[in-house]
Amino acid sequence: MDGTILIVDDVATNRIVFKVKLGAASYHPLMATGGLECLRMARDARPDLILLDLMLPDLSGVEVIRRLRADPVTCDIPVIVVSALTSLTDRLAALEAGADDVFSKPWDDQLLMARVRNLLRSRQDAADLAGGRDAMLYGMAEPVSDFGHPGVLALVTDRTDSALQMRRDLGPLLRDRIVIMGHADALLDVEPGRPSADIYIIETDGKPGERGLRLLSDLRSRLATRHAGICILSSRTALAEAGAEATMAFDLGADAVIDSRMTSVEMALRLRMILRRKQRADRTREQLQDGLRLAMLDPLTGLFNRRFAMPKLTELAGRAVAAGRSFAVMIADLDRFKSVNDRYGHATGDAVLIEVARRFGQNLRGSDLLARVGGEEFLIAVPDAGLEEAQAIAVRLCQQIEARAIEAPGGEQITVTVSIGLAIGCAGTVDTDAAGLASSVTEEADQALLLSKTAGRNTVTIARSAA
Amino acid sequence: MDGTILIVDDVATNRIVFKVKLGAASYHPLMATGGLECLRMARDARPDLILLDLMLPDLSGVEVIRRLRADPVTCDIPVIVVSALTSLTDRLAALEAGADDVFSKPWDDQLLMARVRNLLRSRQDAADLAGGRDAMLYGMAEPVSDFGHPGVLALVTDRTDSALQMRRDLGPLLRDRIVIMGHADALLDVEPGRPSADIYIIETDGKPGERGLRLLSDLRSRLATRHAGICILSSRTALAEAGAEATMAFDLGADAVIDSRMTSVEMALRLRMILRRKQRADRTREQLQDGLRLAMLDPLTGLFNRRFAMPKLTELAGRAVAAGRSFAVMIADLDRFKSVNDRYGHATGDAVLIEVARRFGQNLRGSDLLARVGGEEFLIAVPDAGLEEAQAIAVRLCQQIEARAIEAPGGEQITVTVSIGLAIGCAGTVDTDAAGLASSVTEEADQALLLSKTAGRNTVTIARSAA
């Protein structure tokens, strides 16, 4: 369900106050009166966020957070502690256990709601990036290490003296490298696509046209830094102003707002958690990419598979049409491949396919398209190629396969040949779109391949339209 | 490259002014002096955004936009028109051709930079959602219709009279349904997960603690509305205030800021473009989901594939451990399946596998896990099951396969049987994590399967640890 928020408090009036407020904001409030009930409901109802009091009759709030974090079903649910009882010790214990934020009485309601929006938005972003819940499972077989590699934390400020002091204070509490930089440096990539830091801690100056919040928006709009952790370090003392700034920071996508008078221990705890979340999200994104890559690839040869070859060819055709250039399509088929399988077995047949794919790849450019589109059939597309050039490439591919025997795992030396059909796609020759052009050229190459087969194999035939 | 912005202007001083400003903001400026050069550079350098003057020596700026939009390589690059010459006719022509925004002299530099950030951020979001550029190709084979289905546009306002007038004005210019709602209604789902509109046009009131911008943030944080189109409708007349509000709206993720004094024709053009972009992004997301689903499924039977079965089983084991419950794992293997393939051919063998998968599926619950993990081998996991229940399920599966002959496509009636190995996973029985538990239970089920095979097949064997 969308926007389900679990309120955990043993005092009925507190629960009701939250319920009314959340209901008015169109959230779906659920209520638990104790820690065990909270844990049960968190598993069963899977709320999107938990508002947790620390003083509970059965379990301590800190213990509840620990158990939520230990359970794979609930470990990612954001938890905001809202409690009258928050000594410094309590705050630290809650953060250490894995709370996302701690609000002590009396809190700023607007700010609390902004934090709710902010955490819900991050959670949806993560789900989107993971391509839905099921895709996230890809990574579940791999052990989730909670202690990732050390990161780089950037203190973004123009006041070097206070930054140096902060680095001295935080240094012993963190394993990460802490660097100090100005606003402009934060946007510079170390190298293309590599950001200058994992977490940016941006000091705000409280002046109108606030540079710090603008930098936050800027970092979120850049490819290299959009998934970085971002903390706003505020030194505003007036409560209302600080609240308004923090509200805006959360809505702009900050991961935390830190008061510069906070203890170093609390800062370190918060930074550690942000880094951990960021590294987890990075890994999820990588796994998504891996999953997608696998969906596109033929597992045997590592080439693009049939399903992916046609859209890829359509893209190539679309570019050719737009640029008014031609492109070549070849269908290459191993000759009498069934006899290899029959005589030597499938393992040897597979080894032959892998080696043929490798030789094709070695004789094509990175911009060419190479896919395995059938058992022993390959599709090759060469952009910006005319007939002569394409024919030379096709002939070379034939020769490279025939030239050297392939050594099978069992030691057998197997010589195979390929037949190739070649067709040329030209913008304007057919009155159709890129997809239509791609499939008609492939069809022509297929027909030409048949002619190669009937002409005795191990040869290149040019489609009639191109000859 | 990250943050590459192409400046197109035939006046050298204009280019230089932009170059300095963009460079200072850590973007990578490129420059073109005319329309043809712009088109060439857009294809070759693939900038992330184009700042385009309308008065060019060779092509009109409007024609440049048209050509950019017609080329699949450049059609998604955001274009901001920045031009001295912008009569109402020019603005409309530029928007109609597909410009994302039009800034006329003199413009607010802060606002222009906010719009740049805003468009870059949307672009990266789209790329993220598409799982990278390659994944987007999945959809390219399907024709991209530029005219999607009519949408629902919500005018969010408390001033019903002006909203009614606006609906009367916009109605004849759009195919979409226009509804009027208050702020609270915007957050209500029509049904779970279904938003109340495709585009929200939010009227701001200009009061402190602005409700309109808060609603914008709120919509972006909700699952149902986070990908909706959102326009801010501003009636501020003071230039500086309007600029500050628009800057903030763009940084919070608005898709457009519309001045309430704008002509209805211009509003309609902008709304149409936002709807088109939104519908395209929706389709890309769906395609990504499809791609991922395919990566998880066995194409023959539609069951989960081997690669996906283990993480899925690990998740199931993790839940069982956390809840202190047991679960059952079965490995089911078709008996003497090779003889089916040898005698009837692979097509018939495939038909048998499909029917076996179907019968298994019919006799399991939705919460059970069913995967094809080998040629004729299936993995079944049943959560919350003890030995007795699991054994009853396994025996039933055996019976269901043996009970009726399978009709092959050629009309042959083929009777097959399965052997099953069954093991039970219990929290606490092994001192390991969920992944370790999942693989050890699978291993036990595998061993038990071997015993079923040696015991004469078509039978269920319980692993020693569970018996």
Question: Can you give a write-up of this model?
Answer:
The structure is a homodimer of 467-residue chains. Chain A is of the alpha/beta class and 467 residues long. Chain A has 3 domains: 1-107, Response regulator (Rossmann fold), CATH 3.40.50; 141-296, Rossmann fold, CATH 3.40.50.2300; 306-462, Reverse transcriptase/Diguanylate cyclase domain (Alpha-Beta Plaits, 2-Layer Sandwich), CATH 3.30.70. Chain A is 48% helix and 18% strand. Chain A contains 16 helices and 17 strands. Chain A has helices spanning 12-24, 35-45, 61-70, 88-97, 109-129, 133-136, 160-170, 183-186, 211-221, 239-252, 264-296, 306-323, 337-344, 346-362, 387-403, 434-454; strands at residues 4-8, 28-32, 49-52, 79-83, 101-104, 152-156, 177-181, 199-203, 229-234, 256-259, 326-334, 369-372, 377-383, 406-407, 413-414, 418-426, 460-462. In chain A, strands 2-1-3-4-5 form a 5-stranded parallel beta sheet, sandwiched between helices. A 5-stranded parallel beta sheet of chain A has the order 7-6-8-9-10, sandwiched between helices. In chain A, strands 12-13-11-16-17 form a 5-stranded mixed beta sheet, sandwiched between helices. In chain A, α2 packs parallel to α3, α5 runs parallel beside α10 (239-252) and α12 packs across α16 (434-454). The longest helix of chain A has 33 residues, at 264-296. Chain A is elongated and about 90 Å long. The relative contact order of chain A is 0.07. Residues 133-145 of chain A have low confidence and may be disordered. Chains A and B meet through α5, α9, α10, α11 and α12 of A and α5, α9, α10, α11 and α12 of B.
